[in-house]
Write a structure and sequence with these properties.
The structure holds two protein chains of two kinds.
Chain A (H helix, E strand, L loop, with lengths): L1 H20 L8 H5 L18 E4 L7 E6 L4 E5 L2 H27 L4 H4 L4 H10 L1 H12 L3 H20 L7 H6 L8 H16 L4 H10 L2 H7 L30 H6 L17 E7 L10 E9 L1 E2 L4 E7 L2 E7 L8 E4 L2 E7 L5 E6 L8 E4 L2 E4 L1 E9 L2 E10 L5 E3 L14 E6 L7 H10 L3 H8 L7 E7 L4 E6 L14 E2 L18 E3 L5 E4 L20 H12 L5 H8 L5 H13 L7 H12 L10 H24 L8 H10 L17 H21 L5 H5 L1 E5 L8 E4 L15 E3 L2 E5 L5 E5 L17 H5 L4 E2 L13 E8 L1
Parallel strand pairs in A: 1-29, 3-7, 6-23, 11-20
Antiparallel strand pairs in A: 2-3, 2-29, 4-5, 4-22, 5-25, 5-26, 7-8, 8-9, 9-10, 10-18, 11-17, 12-13, 14-15, 16-17, 18-19, 19-21, 23-24, 26-27, 27-28
Helix pairs in contact in A: 3-7, 3-9, 6-9, 13-14, 17-21, 18-19, 19-21
Chain B lengths: L1 H19 L4 H12 L4 H26 L3 H11 L4 H39 L1
Helix pairs in contact in B: 1-2, 1-3, 2-5, 3-5, 4-5
The chains are: A alpha+beta, B mainly alpha.
Chain lengths: 810, 124
């Protein structure tokens, strides 16, 4: 009897431990997670945490002191550069390890390993695009440069020094929740992170959609709705500039009329794409336009907004340089920032550097493909994808002279569709290059020449590299290694049976569009086209014109500029697109057909001050009306076609209806009568009124509530996210804040004798949701506030802003 | 007295064990204490239960309090779907208590087997 009692009790106890230690029955191992000494509670940092510590690492050659200020920004003082990169790696890991690994897992197509088969499509996409292949090639190139290799090695070693110090209880919380453990950092992971940025910034194109559009529209119609240039363009290099672009003479293939421009077959591929609004603003004004007489540089990169943030703010000071700014957890150096001589920043160049070629394989084995009159042997790369809770997934990817055959019968983008064609991707990010060197050199740049030598290392993703210096120079280069393309080359899928459609060369660096110290006293970019069509190479890509138009207007009219003016401008909610588009609505609406409620809405729209301010209802009505108008105009024709297509851009629609009030697409093809622009505008407006009315029922009529901006945790865990932020702005607005996307780091640097710099990002320095520093800056960011960026001098080590000192030695 | 003593001993042993071993070492700590100190099995359960309830509850409360409940707000929403740090602390205490209670009861039952065996051996 006693033995039976003991046995039952023992089994219950063991059962309970198993239940609480695994997720066999419970969704999470609650005992393990809630154990106060090891589980989640260990991630609850005391709010007055003292970070002061003395640590020693044999990898260091000298002493390093890190002062953590009251915003948890580290100011690193090292005796040599490589020690500084070691410490940077250590600090990135200390505050952001989970994110660093998660992002590089994502880049490498390894998310299924963590969350199971639902990520398989995502992973296959990355593998088949050749993300790891690209990272390996870049790393091999980067490691040929001894300085880059040393920096990467030190950085990696610093990350690993932190990983080695981890215990079960000090593990970042996401590892505990998802139930895995960090692996060692490698230089390849840094390379993968940079490829992740390349994918985000130079991975977008619409080749398949455009191929489908070409198959249904006449050439005249196509050029009308997908124009290559906009009327409202204010290019980076002003219109009328004469370019010396003669190095490469492109030859359009002789059969292009039949096999390319006029080809009529459609495709079944639907691609997974980065956010089309990944872009940015940057501008620099020269001393003659500022109150202080010194240049001011401003930059705000628009990217997906996440917690932990993509950015980590820090200062690095060594005998060879002293730089401050936003760094990428995952890579050495300061990425966007300033030093004692100059400041630099980036916007995306938006060029099309990813094209597709249709491949003819001999048979289903894909062992040979037809190229220049012979069967050429295929290379295969076997991608082994680990899937949590399932057997490994093997994906055999064929490589041709163009690159990996990304889409084939087994994969045609997310989802399942029939596809019997093969498409090889030619992506510039596959070519070996060493972008890391640009950042390392920029950190040390003393003048324009140093900056210029640094940016030459940037091949992909192409960026508009902005520069301003204390010596008074301002400059911008539309920099990257870009293919020299003929008219509309790469806009559609190209024939891959010979070399005639291949890229014929790269534009020589010195022929890239640029501007140095122009008379007008400012340079700027906002993802618009860098030039007008007088530049002889075809630019490809997709370029939003309106932010640039407005920035150009503002900078042109401003003088005696202060940093406060620049803050106001960087957070400006003025919707210049509405300035063009609202008259179309107001002039074409059939007011007689509106109800009393709708007329009230129209009054609001009419009286709206064109600012996308958070508490305003005007932007809700305008944005919703415009979105409905696009739908009313395009949806009938495009849906009827039954192919995957891309609707033309807002600028295309607006410019078409401004020029031609009997624009072909205005008629609703699903009705017998013929609709006019007035019918469409009225219909769209009525739809918008319904949306607004419904939103107002939930108190969500005002723009910020309607738009509902949020900064989500990388693993989409809502309690770790910041939801419903009261911020205005939007598409085509300088404050380009959308729902989950927007200005990810706002920086303003006045290059006065004593640098005056301001910055803010929607996140916090700590990646730990249990830290008071997890989301510290989010509210300030939403309220358009900035923090002074403190370029600390080591002599200020008694400053009251310093909250902790980490001392490192070997 | 034995009851209070075992509560204290279990808490102490559990705390020490968790400095070096996984969380479920609390079960072994409770088991060992009640295998030494004689108690009725249900009393042992209550001792283990109270001991771990207090230990885990107090630790979680103390950690969370010095964190201004920042993490507890987020985790309670994530796990319990309710923004209630106290509920999370209670859940923590309860889980520890159950594990501790059953560990202690098992220990006490083992002791009673050993004890009865010894007694029966003596009577032979």
């Amino acid at each position: 009897m006693r033995i039976a009692g003991f046995t039952i009790s023992l089994f219950i106890t063991i059962g309970l431990v198993v239940l609480l230690n695994t997720n066999l029955i419970l969704p999470a191992p609650l005992g393990k997670l809630l154990s106060p000494q090891q589980g989640l509670w260990q991630n609850a940092e005391p709010i007055d945490q003292d970070y002061t510590a003395k640590l020693s690492f044999l990898q260091l050659r000298g002493k390093v002191t890190v002062y953590l200020d009251d915003r948890l920004v580290p100011h690193v003082f090292a005796e040599n550069d490589n020690d500084a990169y070691f410490i940077q790696g250590y600090l990135h890991a200390k505050f952001r390890l989970w994110q660093m690994e998660f992002q590089t897992h994502a880049a490498a197509g390894r998310i299924s390993e963590l969350i199971g088969p639902k990520a398989l499509d995502f992973d296959r996409d990355k593998r088949r695009l050749g993300m790891v292949y690209a990272a390996e090639r870049s790393l091999a190139e980067a490691e040929k440069d001894t300085a880059t290799k040393a920096a990467c090695d030190s950085y990696t070693s610093g990350v690993n020094a932190y990983i080695e110090s981890l215990t079960e209880s000090s593990l970042p919380i996401e590892y505990k929740l998802l139930g895995y453990y960090p692996e060692k950092w490698t230089n390849l992971k840094t390379a993968l992170f940079l490829k992740y940025m390349s994918l985000d910034l130079a991975g977008a194109e619409d080749d398949f959609e455009m191929t489908n559009s070409r198959s249904v529209f006449s050439r005249a119609e196509f050029d009308k709705i997908y124009p290559i240039i906009m009327d409202s363009l204010s290019p980076i290099v002003p219109k009328g500039t004469v370019f010396d672009t003669t190095a490469i003479k492109m030859k359009i293939p002789s059969d292009a009329d039949s096999l390319y421009y006029g080809k009529k077959d459609s495709v079944a591929i639907i691609e997974r794409k980065p956010d089309k609004d990944n872009g940015s603003n940057n501008w620099a004004v020269s001393g003659k336009k500022t109150q202080s007489g010194a240049p001011i540089l401003c930059n705000d990169p628009h990217l997906g907004l996440n917690l932990p943030s993509l950015w980590f703010e820090m200062q690095i000071s060594t005998p060879s340089y002293n730089a401050y700014g936003a760094s990428f957890p995952g890579a050495p150096a300061i990425v966007i920032g300033f030093n004692d001589s100059c400041a630099w920043g980036f916007t995306n160049a938006m060029r099309d550097v990813r094209d597709y070629y249709e491949i003819k394989f001999k048979d289903a084995t894909r062992k040979e493909y037809w190229f220049t009159n012979e069967w050429k042997k295929t290379n295969f790369r076997i991608e082994k994808i680990l899937v949590k809770g399932k057997p490994d997934y093997m994906d055999t990817v064929a490589y041709t002279v163009f690159g990996p055959v990304m889409y084939d019968t087994s994969y045609c983008g997310p989802g399942k569709r029939a596809n019997n064609k093969y498409y090889s991707v030619r992506w510039k990010a596959h070519d070996p290059s060493n972008e890391m060197k640009m950042f390392l050199l920029l950190n040390k740049a003393k003048n324009y020449n140093d900056y210029y030598e640094a940016i030459k290392n940037l091949h992909t993703p192409g960026q508009n590299c902005l520069f301003a210096s204390k010596s008074g120079d301002i400059a911008i280069w539309d920099q990257g290694e870009f293919p020299a393309k003929w008219y509309r080359q790469g806009d559609y899928v190209m024939p891959g049976t010979d070399s005639s459609y291949m890229w014929q060369g790269m534009i020589p660096q010195q022929e890239n569009p640029h501007m140095i110290n122009p008379d007008r006293g400012y340079v700027f970019s906002a993802n618009q086209m860098p030039t007008d069509t007088s530049y002889s190479y075809y630019l490809g890509g997709s370029y939003p014109p309106y932010r640039a138009y407005y920035i150009n207007r503002r900078l042109n009219e401003m003088s005696n500029i202060t940093t406060q003016d620049m803050k106001d401008m960087q957070t400006d909610n003025y919707n210049v697109f509405a300035e063009f588009a609202r008259p179309v609505i107001l002039n074409h609406i059939n007011e007689g057909e509106l109800s009393a409620d709708e007329s009230k809405c129209l009054d609001i729209l009419r009286q709206w001050n064109l600012r996308n301010d958070p508490r305003s209802v005007g932007p809700t009505i305008f944005v919703e009306t415009w979105d409905s108008l696009q739908s009313v105009i395009w949806k009938d024709e495009f849906d009827k076609i039954g192919l995957h297509l891309q609707w033309p851009t807002s600028s295309s629609l607006l410019e078409n209806i401004l020029k031609d009030s009997s624009f072909l697409f205005l008629d609703d093809v699903s009705t017998p009568q013929k609709e006019t622009l007035n019918d469409d505008v009225t219909k769209a407006f009525k739809k918008a009124c319904i949306v607004l009315k419904n939103a107002e029922k939930d108190q969500k009529g005002e723009w910020a509530a309607f738009k509902d901006t949020r900064v989500k945790h990388l693993a989409k865990l809502e309690p770790f996210s910041r939801m419903h932020l009261p911020i205005g702005g939007g598409i085509n607005v300088i404050n380009a804040t959308k729902e989950e996307h927007g200005p990810s780091w706002r920086m303003i640097v006045s290059l006065t004798a004593e640098t005056e710099a301001w910055g803010v990002y929607p996140g916090g320095q700590s990646g730990n949701p249990g830290s008071p520093f997890y989301d510290t800056f989010v509210d300030s960011w939403a309220q358009a506030k900035y923090y002074p960026l403190w370029m600390m001098k080591e002599s200020e080590n008694n400053d009251k802003r310093i909250k902790g000192v980490l001392s490192f030695n070997n | 007295m034995k009851f209070i003593l075992s509560i204290l001993l279990i808490a102490l042993a559990s705390f020490a064990a968790c400095l070096y071993f996984p969380w479920w070492s609390i079960v072994i700590a409770a088991f060992l204490v009640t295998a030494i100190i004689p108690m009725k099995s249900w009393v042992a359960f209550i001792a283990g239960f109270i001991s771990l309830f207090l230990l885990w509850g107090a630790l979680a409360y103390w950690i969370s309090d010095s964190n201004n409940n920042i993490l507890a707000h987020r985790i309670s929403l994530l796990i319990l779907k309710k923004d209630n740090p106290m509920l999370l602390i209670f859940a923590t205490a309860l889980i520890g208590a159950l594990a501790g209670g059953f560990g202690a009861m098992t220990g006490s039952l083992l002791r009673s087997i050993m004890y009865s065996k010894k007694r029966s051996l003596r009577t032979i």
